[in-house]
Amino acid sequence: MSSNKNTPLGQRNLESMHNYATPLGRRILELVRNYAVPIMFIIICAVCIPLSGFSTSYLLNEIITRMGRNIFLILSLLIPIMSGMGLNFGMTLGAMAGQIALIFVTDWQIWGIPGVVLAMILSVPLSALLGLMCGKLMNMAKGREMILGYMMNYFVGGLYQLVVLYFMASIIPIKHASIRLPRGFGIRTTVNLTNMRQCLDNELAIFYNGVKIPVLNFIIIAVLCLFIVWFRRTKLGQDMRAVGQDMDVAQAAGINVDRTRIISIIISTVFAGFGQIIYLQNIGNFPTYTAHSQIGMFCIAALLVGGASVEKASIGNVFLGVILFHTMFIVAPKAGVAITGDAMIGEYFRVFVSYGVITMALIMYEIKKRRARSQGGELLALAQKEGGAAS
Amino acid sequence: MRSIKKDFFGNQVLTDINFTLEAGQVLGLCGENGAGKSTLMKILFGMDVIRETGGYEGDIIINGEKVVFNTPFDALKAGIGMVHQEFSLIPGFTATENILLNREPQKKNVISQVFGERLNTLDYKEMDRRAAAAIQKMGVEIDAKMVISSMPVGHKQFTEIARELSKDQLKLLILDEPTAVLTEKEAEALLNSIRAMAAQGISVIFITHRLHEILSVCDKVVVMRDGRVVRDVSTRETSVDDITRWMVGRDVQSAASRAEIKDEKADAKTVMSIKNLWVDMPGETVRNVSLDMRQGEILGIGGLAGQGKLGIPNGIMGLYEAGGTVVFDGQEIPLNNPRKCLDSSLAFVSEDRREVGLLLDETLEWNVAFPAMQIQNKFLKLLLGGLVKWRDEKAIHTVTQKYIDQLQIKCTSSKQRAKELSGGNQQKVCLAKAFALEPKFLFVSEPTRGIDVGAKALVLDALKQFNRESGVTVVMISSELEELRQTCDRIAIISGGQVSGILPAAASSEEFGTLMISKVV
User: Fold this and answer.
1) CATH number for the domain including B446?
2) Coil, helix or strand for B72?
3) Roughly what angle, to the nearest 10 degrees, separates helices A344-390 and A9-19?
4) Contact A14/B101, CB-based, under 8 Å?
5) Which residues of chain A have pLDDT under 70?
6) A98, A231, B229, B461: least surrounded by Cβ within 10 Å?
7) How far apart are CA B151 and CA B156, in angstroms?
8) Between chains, do B101 and A242 touch, taking CB under 8 Å as contact?
9) Is A270 on the interface with B (CB under 8 A)?
10) Last residue in a domain, options B249, B276, B308
11) Among partner residues B106, B149, B288, which is closest to A384 by beta-carbon distance?
């Protein structure tokens, strides 16, 4: 029998995967399998861009604006993935906290960058509290964090509506009639941020060949990226990685697993709050009751489009994902017109693709796990065949 | 350790254990499964289970001081390190990261001054240095930068040991079957590193089933059986044969009675034939097993834990991924398909009665009748020409009552819920469930695990009776050799996932013992 007959199976398949050089064809197949989603999107974009007929500078302008707008939000998803809690659908909680902070800042008429900074500061306690709650619940439902986070959206979304629709201006003081509903309490369906609009984007902005580069925005994003890189090297980051890979082992080594997981969710929620504020200042107004509802879904879809999975995501995935996802959004309506004569098709596409991508990522995650399991059996059969031939 | 006693809910598992270990000594600990080795080590290491089940009696004395460990962390502080049978490593971390898991050297920075120590950055250089030192101490070469999941098993084992060695205060290292997963070469390297550790003044307790390893590396050997220390001798004065005898040797006579009746069945036809079976059951891997079972016999399958005896029934019944051919009654049984097995009148009493065996929240009646109802449409009234199936409560009640009487299941009524019964009675319900299927062939896996002596005898008698009266072929898997010898006609011993031999029940303990360890991996 072969010399490695004594090693358990899980190890042996890895060894054999490393030892035997796989033929080129199989390696490409493996690559395609692992990066199916990004490859699909690259193809879609490659087809749609010429069909849409947009100029390069328009396209670049749009993509760069959207990158500045969206990347911070998506980066907030990375830390829970690192600590093994999957895609944080609960990031919406942070977005709600950010919106509440923005409503206050609007009411106090603090505009421009000071307004944005103040809103961020205000959102922190609220996000942290919601994150703590979310983290505690997720510790009770280990292994089902994603569905729990998703359901939390609806639950906390209801609370948000209660606060904004009934408590604001009745219990919570709101001075300005312009954002109040005509009946005297509650907030209007749209909050106008005109005086704050793109204040981060315009500060230090550089125009290059007609393409506007929001430098300050990108500096903020760069700082967050550096923070994430640095964070991985801290004790807490190391603990999170350990917890993410094997909770039992981490526990046995004396790491406080529950606390680490809660901290991870709190950080994510706080960053999501910041991200939502950056996102909304770019757009310049927000629908009070629905602005947060799709944000988690789109951010997660973008991250997955960038090649991330439920258990592994990098900063590179975020950037690639944002570029591909938004390129598709920009060109799809025009391409839709070119193909079918109907602009709505692009809009349909957007929603359908987001859900589709998330579903696909979740299924592939399960398939991968199952394949790893059945590999053990295959190798056992193989070893037996080899053994039979030798004896 | 002095007069250690431990019981689980009145079930005495350790009695008067005494032994001493000097600094720099290597002690080999061996014994059959269930002899109490693991429990003893759990006490020594302060594991939670011990405290939760009512603590222990006796004293542990380290360097002249009596110590009590409430948690493993206390034991670690006192300088005891333990390498468990299952790896406790983070798969995506490098060896270095695993060796220093949660003990990483850190550097302070501005942010950590404000937000607390957990935001200290890790000192990667110092980590590399310490990990290298620990690996050096072990005297084996492993790549500290390699990720655990791509390492061969041996290196994982060494990483675990290096982790214990990297703790400065380490005085006593417990190795629980460290060579079980190693190849011969790796095992040899491990033995060398044990010698190197001992030379540095670290005491080692070495638990293994490979007896020649004990002889080659240990200063003394302690043999345990049935919760007692039966021998405590210097390795120089003993041999593999001696140890084997001490391990298994009970009164050899008692088993002989069963053997006489059996000869007539030697020429009975083969009812099931297994060829080249493999089963990927974690911890119980089966490799290339071929086995024939004769009509109407009771075949025992024995062997040490983790050698694959449990994998055989679980694989054939389709609970774990398996391959090979199984022919039953002239027909090939498709593997990985539990329903097909049940349809061909095979039945299985699982060793995992709480998870697989019983519907814990349901009544006894349901538990007994459920599979028969599902598989064979028994206990059903067919209405509208079979379109609607109605449960026949009366028939269910009758059959349950019959088995309650026959197996003396202690319960308040046949409507009691299964989880309220004691372990032994639950086991009887599992048997009743299988009997109600009226199978032609029955697998019984670890039927006496965790039940008391009285219930044990009843369960075994019920099996024998079922075999005799209905002519059903029974395959019984058990880690207790004595029990197999009392019940079975022939006993196949599984070692290293393979059949190492088949003996009549009357064969001597030594013969069984030799087979058990012959291919141990």
Assistant:
1) 3.40.50.300
2) helix
3) 100
4) no
5) 1-22, 343, 346, 373, 376-377, 380, 383-391
6) B461
7) 6
8) yes
9) no
10) B249
11) B288
> Chains A, B: CB contacts under 8 A, how many?
112
Q: Which domain holds residue A342?
A: 37-380
3-state class (DSSP) for residue B10? coil
Domain count, chain A: 1
Residues B478/B312, Cβ–Cβ less than 8 Å: no
A377, B181: Cβ pair inside 8 Å? no
Range of the domain at B427: 357-438
The ipTM is: 0.75
**What does DSSP say about strands B57-62 and B331-332: parallel, antiparallel, or unpaired?**
unpaired
- Give the list of residues 6+ apart from residue B53 with CB closer than 8 angstroms, or none: B8, B9
What is the total count of domains within chain B?
4
Interface test with B, best of A20, A235, A259 (most B CBs within 10 A): A235
Query: How high is the pLDDT of residue A223?
Result: 94
**Chain A: residue whose CA lies nearest to B88:** A249
pTM over 0.95: no
Convert the pLDDT of each residue in A121-145 to its tens digit: 999 999 999 999 999 999 998 888 9
| A6 in a structural domain | no
Start-end of H helices in B263-328: 311-316
Residues of chain B in contact with residue A248, where contact means CB-CB under 8 angstroms, are: 88
On whether any CB of chain A is under 8 Å from the CB of B97, the answer is yes
State the nearest Cα–Cα gap between B307 and chain A, in angstroms. Answer: 11
Q: Which residues of B fall within a CB distance of 8 Å from A4?
A: 152, 183
Q: What is the mean pLDDT of chain B?
A: 79
Task: Tell me: do B391 and B288 sit in the same domain.
Answer: no
Is there a domain that residue A270 lies in?
A: yes
DSSP B62-113: ETTEEE--SSHHHHHHTTEEEE-SS----TTSBHHHHHTTT---EE--HHHH
Is residue B147 domain-shared with residue B177, that is, in the same domain? no
Whether residue B266 is contained in a domain is answered as yes
Between CA B466 and CA B454 the distance in angstroms is 18
Residue B233 CA to residue B223 CA, distance in Å, equals 9
**Per-window interface: B 343-402 vs A, CB < 8 A:** none
Q: Searching chain B, which residue's CA lies closest to the CA of residue A376?
A: B280
Compare CB distances from B104 to A235, A248, A249 and report the shortest one's residue.
A235
Closest partner residue to B90 (CB to CB) among A6, A236, A242 is A242
CATH number at residue A311: 1.10.3470
Cβ atoms B208, B28 nearer than 8 A: yes
B128–chain A nearest CA distance, Å: 14
Please indicate, yes or no, whether residues B271 and B314 belong to a single structural domain of this protein.
yes
Q: Are B174 and B73 part of one and the same domain?
A: yes
Examine residue B126 and state whether it is found in any structural domain, yes or no. Answer: yes
* 3-class state of residue B377 by DSSP: coil
Q: What are the backbone dihedrals phi and psi of residue B209, each rounded to the nearest 5 degrees, phi first?
A: -95, -10
Residues in chain B with CB shorter than 8 Å from the CB of A232 are: none
Shortest distance, CA B151 to any CA of chain A (angstroms): 7
A256 in contact with chain B, both atoms CB, cutoff 8 A: no
Place of tokens 């039966």: B230
- Residue B352 is assigned to a structural domain of this protein: no
Domain boundary among B168, B190, B213: B168
Do B28 and B94 lie in a common domain?
no
A116 belongs to a structural domain: yes
Q: Which tokens is B436 given?
A: 């109600």
Asked whether residue B111 falls in the same domain as residue B240, the answer is no
Residue B521 has pLDDT above 70, yes or no: no
Cβ–Cβ below 8 Å for A234 and B93: no
Does residue B449 form part of some domain? Answer: yes
User: Is A157 part of a structural domain of the chain?
Assistant: yes
Give the rounded percent of residues in chain B with a pLDDT score beyond 90.
0
Tens of pLDDT, residue by residue over B38-95, are 778 888 887 777 777 667 777 777 777 777 787 888 888 888 888 877 778 888 888 8
Cross-strand pairs, A234 = B121
Dihedral pair phi/psi, residue B227, rounded to 5°? 75, 15
**B166-209 pLDDT, tens digit each:** 887 788 888 887 876 677 777 888 888 888 888 888 888 888 87
Is residue B326 located within the same domain as residue B399?
Answer: no
